[in-house]
Every structure is written in structure tokens, then in C-alpha cells.
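Researcher: Batch entry, complex prediction.
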Amino acid sequence: MTKLQTAQTATVSPSAQKMLAGFKYFNLPRFIKITPRLINRIRTQFQSGEDPIEQSLIKDGNLTTTTLALNDVTGIRITGASVNEDGPVILNIHGGGFIMGTARERTALLAATETPFPVYSVDYDLAPEAQAPQIVNQVLSFYRGLIETVGNRPIVMMGSSAGSGIAAAVVEQAHAQGLRLPAAMVLFCPALDVSGNGDSSIFNEKRDVGSAKMALRLAKAYIGANDQKSPIVSPMYGEVGDWFPATFMSTGTRDIMLSNVARFSEKLRHADVEVTAVIREGMWHGFNWEPKLPEAVETRQAAWQFIKQHVGETL
Amino acid sequence: MTKLQTAQTATVSPSAQKMLAGFKYFNLPRFIKITPRLINRIRTQFQSGEDPIEQSLIKDGNLTTTTLALNDVTGIRITGASVNEDGPVILNIHGGGFIMGTARERTALLAATETPFPVYSVDYDLAPEAQAPQIVNQVLSFYRGLIETVGNRPIVMMGSSAGSGIAAAVVEQAHAQGLRLPAAMVLFCPALDVSGNGDSSIFNEKRDVGSAKMALRLAKAYIGANDQKSPIVSPMYGEVGDWFPATFMSTGTRDIMLSNVARFSEKLRHADVEVTAVIREGMWHGFNWEPKLPEAVETRQAAWQFIKQHVGETL
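Model: C-alpha cells for the complex:
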């Protein structure tokens, strides 16, 4: 990552300054072939870092996690001590570049800690074992099952990074199939375009914590035989109308996916959809899942506030 | 300006692609001293380019312009053929890096063309002949005069670039003095921090149409003896509360001032002020004043829509 100048450190929190200074830029050199075995190694390494963090979030948040299956798709249900079992629920679609991560990810745990909403988080199959249409259909099945489970309670669909891309694709499919749509969407650092298009995939290469080029190479495992601009993998190119749920999106000025927020905001605005876009100074891809980083805490609070406004629930 | 890659041109309009390809990057080499004489030459050159454009905007928009003085501060009043003389009015504060530009600038003319609102645009003295406190006070006097002139009609304060910085400083002053505040603010590509702080003053250097470093050097003529972070010159550092008017801001991913929008949005949100931030893919500093560029037209429409929502006027 390029060294920060004073003009850049002056405008982020001290915690962010410290994190930015400590980041190890993540890239895979071009000559390394992305094989299932490599992906497996990345997964294991990633998860071994996440496990203790997830465990402490569960402990600190006094959370209860229960595995469940909806329409044969597995997931977990996460609730905090002061859960409201009559109000809205969150359906979380985890991030991890389509190739790693689990339903128990931080964002799901933090949502259950910081809101009264029960969080249902889906454990979709990962790429390359599964590919786009299958994964989108799995999440859609889980969503159908959730509608049946919660009845009239509003459902908020939430995703991070790859999970946000899946979320938007699922909503486009749900609309096409005449399903009841979520009451609101919360899309953190959304991967809405896996074609590589976007100003920020160029200008934030080497400024973010990981490489945009590498993310695109990994996404190929998800895209499979689909066109990179097919809405099933890149919902940026899908048809949206005023039926699309009110949407909250967040990103940071260092995020390789900033342009997705810029572009999708316009697309939704153009379709008369209510949209709130939060672009945080100096923040990187996935910053939203940091438990204590002030910028992340504030961004999540803005998201919970947005949910509150759109489902009429007092937080 | 750095050459654009396909991933970057694919996401902007054909007109924007053409403009981006044709831009001549504007910078002043370090060894050139910024003298009043040089500033005068920049002004003359700038205005000779603007004059024919302004004249054709007046003609095409069938606009009437009348010079006026409010509390001894001069300005112009611009109205279109279908002006509404009972509704809200716009107070425009022109851009031009504090050292150039006039009240007749494009943004004022376009607002009078695209909305039914009469536009009052103030001709504040320019730097280095005048400096920050004097300029802010002039605009404040003009604003006071406008309140007396329009009575109960809502006033929307609008600025571009340097003008947005002045606008925010004026509102902070107006609040401190107990004046009636504008009903809403529209801040295009706002210069809210002349200290140079901000991620985008680094990452968009050489990506925008002009240099951030040069803009800061020119702003010194405006800052004078003030601290660069004094709220009078950098309203980013001012005290804001929920009294601050609902604010629309716009910027682009190439704008050297993008970080101002990111940071000021957070500041306002934190103070419980309603804020809409539009960040347009691939757009540069000041793109909003292009008469026909689709991205600019849409951004202005979003601003007029925001005004409509906050003053209850049908456009």
C-alpha cells in the first residue's frame, strides 16, 4: 500500500491511522495460478484469523447462535439478549470474495449485538464448488423460507462485499418471480460489478488493503461460464425499477469498490428508489466490519438508523 | 492528466469520455510566483472563455439579468421566462478559486433556466484584493439584504467550489449572529477545507482537471493572515449543530475535493442534519456547471429535486 501523507492521516481517526499503517497489502502475483487448492488454503488461513474474533464477538455481545435450514439451505440465527421477536428481521449474506467466509461473519454478529433484530445469516456454497446461478438460487431459497418463517415481519436484506452483490442479484430475481421484496437493503462495500469496470478499480489499486485485479481473478471462480456483465453476477447491469427496496450503501475513499456505490446510487435514484450512500473518508474495502473502529461503528449506526426509518422500529 | 483505462471510460457517458480525453491539465509549476499580476491574467483568460458561454446560456434560457445592490454589495438577479415570484429564491455564490469568476457564472444561469426560482448571485470582491473575513462579511450583508427583500419566501443558498466554502462559512456566521437561516443548502464540489487535508487532494492530484496543490497555492490569496483551519476560511472545522440547514452536496470520483463531501457529510449527519451526497462516477471538479453533460444535468436535477423537497415547491 502506498505510504500515507499527513493530508491523508489528518482526516481519519487515530485507530484508523494505526490500522492503515499496519496493513499488509494483499495481492497474488500474476504467475500464481488460482487453483481450488490455493483457494482452500486462503479460506483456511482467513477463517483461522476470524474464528477467535467471532468467538469474542459472541461472548462480548452475549449472543445466541442456532444453526437452521430453510428450504434445505443452511444458515444460522443470531440473537442478542434484548432481541425483539415481533419486529423486523435481518437476512445477512456474508462477504469473502465469493470463495470464503461463513454465515457467522462479523457483520452478522455485530448486527445482532447493535440492533434488537434477529439476524438470519445464510451459509451459501462457496465458489468454485458452486457458481453464480446456483449460489443466487440458494440464497433465494433461503429468503423464500425466511418469508414463510417470519410471516408479516419486515425483512431487511444485508450484505457485505460479495454478499452485497449476491443480495442485489437475489432481489432482482425475487422481483422477477413476484416474491415479496425486502423492506430495505443494506449493502456494505458492495461487489455489484465483477467485470472490473469502475474508476475506483483503477485509482484505488494499491491504495486499498487488497488488489482489485486479484479480487477480479478470484471472482472468476464465481462467474464461471456467465458473462461478466450478466445481472446474475453483476447486478449493476440488471433492470431496476421503483419496486427496488430503499437502499443504504456504504464505502470509503480507499475502497476498490467505491465506484459501485457511485454508480448504483445513480441507477437507483434514476429509478426513483430512495437511496442513502455513505462514503467515509480514508476507509478501505470491508472497513464496516471492524468492531470498534469509530468510522465503522458510525457507519453501522447509520445503517441501523436507515433500517429504523424504513421499518418503523425503535432501536 | 493520467490516461484513462477502459474500466474507467466504460462507466461514464460518451460526452464525458470525450471531455476527459480533451482536457488540458491545469497546473502552475512551483517556480512560478503567484503575483496579483498573474492572477489578473488568469482571470482575464478565464473570463474570455466564459463570456460567450454565459451569453449563449442567457439567450438559450431566455433569461433576464438585472444588476442590483443589497446592503451596498452588488450582484445580479437572474430570472427565466416561467419564474415564480411567490416561491423560494436562490442565493448563488460563484466559484473560481476565490480569485476569479463573476456573479453571472454558469451555475447561476443554469439554475434560473432549469428551475422557476429567481436567482440572486452575489459579486463579492475577489482575492487578493479582498480576503476571507471581508468576503464572508460581504456575502453575509448581501444575504441580510436578501432576507429583507424577499420577506417570508424561503432562501436556498447555493455555491460551487470556492463559493460553497464561502456559503458554509456565511451560514455558520449567520447562525452565530442569530439571523434567519437558509431553508436548504446546495453545495457543488465544495471547497470546505483550504488546509490541504483530505485523501482526495492526494489521490486525485493529476486525475482531476486541475492540480490540488495549485488550488491551495491560489487559496492563500484568500486565506491571508488567517489560520488555514479557521472556520472562516475552512468551514469544515466550524461548529455545526442541528440548526444547520438540510444540505445537498455533489462531487465526482476524480474531484480533488471529494473528501470534503465525505467529511462534511459525516459532520452534518453527526449533528442530525439531513444531508444528501451525490458522488458521480468519473466526474471532475466543477463538472456540475456543464450545460449539457448528462452527469451534470442529472446532478443539477437531483439538487433541484432536493430543494423542492425542502421548500415544498413544485418544479
